[in-house]
Design a protein that fits this description.
This protein is an alpha/beta fold and 454 residues long. The protein has 19 helices and 17 strands.
């Protein structure tokens, strides 16, 4: 599955009643979860040591071995983020509250409707994933190949990021889904003086209004049903770092007002609270919506837009940066060669033409999925049209003999053409050409020598 794919949430359920476990496993499996069950806390701990879970649901009182409270202590010694939900009988509610104070996500009293538990589990997995993103800073080696390129719009964006990275000016990335907005948002953080601090991604489209406010600003005990203890907001936990608000156009009007105040005043007020908390974070946002149209429709506050778009950067769709297509194809082939232990290194030139002429409505995300499928299905070292469902017979030039081309040569040829074009536009001014290409002058000299360019 590609980096843009959706993974099923993985949960572990622990209870000493086999029939009860079977019911919960059936319900959550049907609801789209990957479920592991255990009859004792000891078995549960062994599973936790072997694999990662988005959330753990455990009974409080288990006659054999550790209790749910002891299990929570064990988990917290090695993982301070994994959400743990406690199932408890009426007589042990005090212990459940103690578990909340020790860091449990929530508790639920037996007997309960599985749907009630599913609501808690969904909130827990969403919360856990967002909290883990606090410590996921830095662009991975796989992602790095998607940032640079030969496209001048992209290089202008990279130059702008370098200029504004060390400021606290909010940056807003605009563009279609799949154009790489989240990667460039991370680039802002990695280039800034905040790079050693948390980088927090919040998917504004994935959370209901009440949950979004609670996650952003925190809440005080008793502020709403189920708020049995106070909770720090993610904006407070991200102190000193960068907050990336993905799909900012999806946040509801009430939250827009609170967010505007937060950006203006650099302080938050927890849900149900009376006192404000100072925060020190840098805001970066992204949206695939046309916010100017949303403002005209009354769906998005104009004053919030101006606060978020101090530095607006519009990401070009893949169809407007076809010069980078060879690099992306080679990049994804390399990624999935490693993942699936393949040795794909060549591509049918007719297929390359077809890929180049495709519209790519889903942009880089769609391209990645297509290349992953082709690499996975390839039986040799060459990417052929049938791997994409293309019919190459009768394609332009079919009467000539075609030989597959090495991907490395395709990438180098695309880079060579981009350098030649920019040198022609700058009338041979290498300093200006390097600036337009977004590379150092020394790097340009090296590439010109390699390609025998003058």
């Amino acid at each position: 599955m590609g980096r843009y794919g959706i993974m099923k949430p993985k949960i572990l359920i622990i209870d000493d009643e086999p029939e009860f476990l079977h019911v919960l496993k059936s319900y959550f499996s049907y609801s789209g979860y990957e479920v592991t069950t255990a009859l004792t806390a000891e078995d549960g701990l062994r599973f936790i040591e072997q694999t990662f879970f988005d959330a753990v649901v455990t009974d409080m009182a288990m006659p054999r071995g550790r209790s749910g409270l002891e299990l929570l202590k064990e988990i917290r010694q090695t993982d301070g983020i994994m959400p743990v939900i406690i199932m408890t009988g009426v007589g042990t509610i005090e212990s459940a509250v103690e578990a909340i104070q020790m860091g449990a996500f929530h508790y639920i009293t037996k007997p309960f409707d599985p749907q009630e538990l599913e609501i808690l589990v969904r909130r827990a997995t969403e919360s856990g994933r967002m909290h883990r993103k606090l410590i996921q800073t830095g662009v991975t080696e796989e992602e790095n190949g998607l940032i640079a390129g030969n496209n001048r719009q992209i290089n202008t964006i990279l130059q702008t990021i370098d200029k504004v990275a060390d400021s606290d000016a909010p940056v807003l990335f605009l563009g279609e889904t799949g154009t790489g907005k989240s990667l460039f948002a991370r680039r802002v953080h990695d280039k800034s003086i905040r790079r050693g601090r948390p980088f927090l991604t919040i998917d504004c489209a994935a959370l209901a209004e009440t949950l979004l406010e609670s996650e952003l600003f925190g809440h005080v005990k008793g502020s709403f049903t189920g708020a049995v203890s106070a909770k720090r907001g993610l904006l407070e936990e991200a102190q000193g770092g960068t907050v990336f608000l993905d799909e900012i156009g999806e946040i509801p009007p009430g939250t827009q007002v609170k967010l505007l105040r937060t950006i203006q005043e650099k302080e938050i007020k927890p849900v149900g609270g009376n006192h404000s908390i100072r925060i020190d974070v840098r805001f970066v946002s992204a949206t695939s919506r046309n916010l100017e149209e949303e403002i005209e429709k009354g769906h998005f506050r104009e004053d919030l837009y101006f606060r978020l778009a101090v530095i607006p950067l519009r990401m070009p769709p893949l169809r407007e940066r076809r010069e980078d297509l060879p690099q992306f194809i080679a990049h994804f082939v390399n990624v999935y060669n490693k993942r699936y232990k393949k040795k794909v290194s060549r591509i049918d030139p007719k297929v390359m033409q077809m890929l180049n002429s495709s519209f790519w409505k889903g942009n880089i995300r769609e391209l990645e999925n297509a290349i992953e499928r082709a690499v996975l299905l390839a039986e040799g070292e060459t990417i052929t049209g049938d791997l994409f469902g293309y019919q190459t017979q009768g394609f332009a030039g079919d009467d000539r003999e075609y030989h597959s081309l090495p991907l490395k040569e395709i990438v180098e040829e695309a880079e060579k053409q981009a350098i030649q074009q920019v040198l022609a536009e700058t009338e041979g001014n290498r300093t200006e050409a390097a600036k337009k290409l977004g590379i150092g002058r020394r790097t340009l000299y090296d590439k010109m020598a390699a390609y025998t360019l003058k």
